[in-house]
Design a protein that fits this description.
The chain has 748 residues and is mainly alpha-helical. The chain is 72% helix and 0% strand.
Length: 748
Amino acid sequence: MKRHVISFPRHCCQLFSYHSHLDPSLNRLLFFRRCFIEKKCSFDSTTRNFPNYSPKKPILQDSELVHQISIAIKQRRSEPLSRVLKPYESKFRADHLIRVLMIIRNDYRLVLNFFEWACLRRDPSLEARCILAQIATASKDLKMARKLIQDFWVNPNLDAGVSFGHFVEQLIYTYKDWGSDPRVFDIFFQVLVEAGMLNEARKLFDKMLNYGLLISVESCNLFISHLSKDLDGIKVALKVFSEFPEVGVCWNTASYNIIIHSLCQIGRVVEAHQLLLQMELRGCMPDVISYSTITSGYCQVGELQKVLKLIEEMQAKGLKPNPFTYNGIILLLCKTGKVAEAERVLRETISEGIAPDSVVYTTLIDGFCKFGNFSAAYRLFDEMQKRKISPDFITYTAVISGLCRSGKVMEADKLFHDMVCKQLEPDEVTYTALIDGYCKEGKVKEAFSLHNKMLEMGLTPNVVTYTALTDGLCKCGEVDTANVLLHEMCRKGLELNIYTYNSLVNGLCKAGNIDQAVKLMKDMEVAGFHPDAITYTTLMDAYCKSREMDKAHELLRQMLDSGLQPTVVTFNVLMNGFCMSGMLQDGEKLLKWMLEKGIMPNASTYNSLMKQYCIRNNMHATNEIYKGMCAKGVGPDANTYNILIKGHCKARNMKEAWFLHKDMVGKGFSPTASSYNALIKGFYKRKKFLEANQLFEKMRSEGLVADREIYNIFADINYDEGKMELTLELCDEAIEKCLVGDIQNKNT
């Protein structure tokens, strides 16, 4: 029964000849515009009158029966109608219903009861249904009027076109004498729209214009809203929005919001913004929804400055941004890597009394996890639970994925079991993230155990799952087993893709089988997959780590010859290769060349150079690189801070090291064990025992392992101070974490 194609009135066909030289789509627009203008101009002179209601005169016997029924139900209205009308049931016919209604029409409650009694005996005629819809509308019982009309259209065997014609005819025929309330046509229009009969709804709109009635703007809003559910419908909705005002429809703020949303949906955000500006000129004040929709549109296309300007406009007009507004900004900031700024927006929303939801927290948690800032992610994870906002499986999956990417698989596994205990069901993405984490750790047995559990849960491993398992097998040197797995994957109908091949190449390189990886790259081309930037970068990384810089250069040349554009990761691989090979001047030349070519380095690019200069104790060069990095707008990451802290501690610049530590923690990054070790030793050598002890305790509280020298230092200090219990505790901890840990590492 559903219709989605909208036909426009076909009047004035001769108008096409006036513009035959124009583009067909423009012809169509001009045609519809002229049709509406003509319809409007002739509106008053051609308005039709509603017909009089003129039923057939009943025979004498029928008149007597109708009279008896009417008297009985009026006089015995307190009794059940089934008892009152028992004597008349055998003689009662469908046409009697309308006759009785004519007599009792002014008693609405009696009308409803009698109609219900009649419907239990036989289906009412279409005329009777329309009459009751008219009475219900006139009695302001719009809910009943809607039900009466809706019930007719639920029949799946109806011929929509024929039934529509009959229904409109009866509704018009019964209008004048049974209600004369135009809302009945509004209700019918809404029912048609909600049933997806948009073509019929448009015909009703035009039909009512002929009778001098205009469908309400609320119903027209429903119409354009339903039109806007797909691209073709949006195009029609835009035409309707342009044309309806010419026959008297006065669009309101809700109408503009629907069209603004539609324009944003199809990426026409600038046009949506222009419409927002036109609203006030046309007498409609934009509301929070208007602005929020535009800001969301600009967020989708990454226009942060325009978003911020719109929020200023909103606030200047006394409009308070809603959660939807802020959610879009937070998502955009996280997408562009500005997670700290995104959290500041969250704090602003909370300070303004706007309660964040799980989507906002999940977005931020995912953003922090992707940048390796797990202390911030966990802090938000705890915060949302304190606010009684339950993390869903998407939140858990975001944290699990982030932990696995950072090699914290045991923490991820613990969170996975916590998730299951809370009756949250992991999906394919959750399982695959954990499988990938185990594979990257070389724990293939655990990964396959999860794979089997996944199958038991009725989940289907996808190509990403198999790619992770293949990668894990390759890293363990089990290339043959990886090939068997790939054949199994193909048997299940999953197609190998470039990511699978890249995973194999990466696995072979990690296992030291570079020659096999090169051969596989050639096999890829035979199979119809062209190596991409990741393939070349992976191989270049392997050559750089084996100090074969000439071969890495040759691969870069091949990459450029094949028309591929190197990414910043490609250049970072080369930079790391230069630095590891002690070729720091070549590294600096590469950095300079990148900047000249407009290729923006990231923190990793600078980190490679700074790390090597710190190792050489050249803090002057390190500081110059760091200043250059900040001047280019590249923010330091956790690795940057850890490199600088260790470098300054080694050079005995404790003031600078301590400043960097505070800055790092303030931005939500966590120092590594080696950074703590360097700071503690530096403060101890400067006789700053209090600061050293505070850092040592902080380190222990975070579960990080200090080196043996530091355990010896604090064991001696506590022994000298007579703190025997604490001394023994540190000795036990040192044996467990240092000596036993070393033995276990050697055994594995």
